[in-house]
Amino acid sequence: MSTLVKQLIGATALAILCGSNAAWGQTPAQTPPPPTAQPAGPRTLPPTPATGAPVIPRGLDVPPDYVIGPDDVLDIIYWRDKEMSAEVAVRPDGRITLPLLNDVQASGLTPEQLRANVTTAAAKFVEDPNVTVVVKTINSRKVFVMGQVAKPGPYPLSGPTTVMQALSMAGGLHEFADSKNILVMRTENGRPIAHRFNYKDVLKRKNLKQNIELKPGDTIVVP
């Protein structure tokens, strides 16, 4: 069979095959175009469901015997009533100023007592007030170190503190201080009392009971 005849037979077979595909509605497979890259946009997060609970900022972990005093900073928060909420500092006269309520006594009260008082007063202006008192800063709890120390002055009493620790915060004793006759002055039940402190004895681990825990308002006098 000649080459020409072979070429004619192959062309005829190809034409028959193409006609058969067309008859059955088939088309040659085509390669789909590659997907168009989309620019990256901001990610949309699902909305957070509302819980209805008030969001209260965290305050200080106050000591168990803490009562509010001058210069302390408080957050008075009303749930669902931001206009009456306020951050306030306790004035030297022991009062704070709040919207609508004006002056309210705070010094000498625990945060819970103040919360109850503010709630009662606010009930005249707000239906069913929900009040929270958050202690932001404690500036009223102080001890004072005076006399022959490196850095006399007031020191914050933010936690349990002994006489020895307070003297350390004050930079220690001067060279010529009378370390055997240090006094801790305190007021109890309206009466002043004095506790003697022998610095050298405590260093020698003698009479350790005299290294008492200080209370707000105590004054250490180093002669």
Tell me the distance between the termini.
133 Å
Mean pLDDT: 82
Sheet/helix structural class:
alpha+beta
Assembly state: single chain
Instruction: Give the class-level CATH name of one domain.
Output: Alpha Beta
Number of helical runs? Answer: 4
Could you tell me the CATH topology label of one domain. Answer: Outer membrane lipoprotein wza fold like
Strand order in space, largest sheet: 7-6-10-8-9
CATH H level of one domain: which superfamily? Outer membrane lipoprotein wza domain like
Query: Percent helix among the residues?
Result: 10-25%
The low-confidence runs, each spanning 5 or more residues with pLDDT under 50, are: 13-29, 39-56
Number of strands: 10
CATH architecture call of one domain: Roll
Provide the β-strand percentage band.
Answer: 15-25%
Q: What is the global morphology?
A: elongated
Largest sheet: 5 strands, mixed
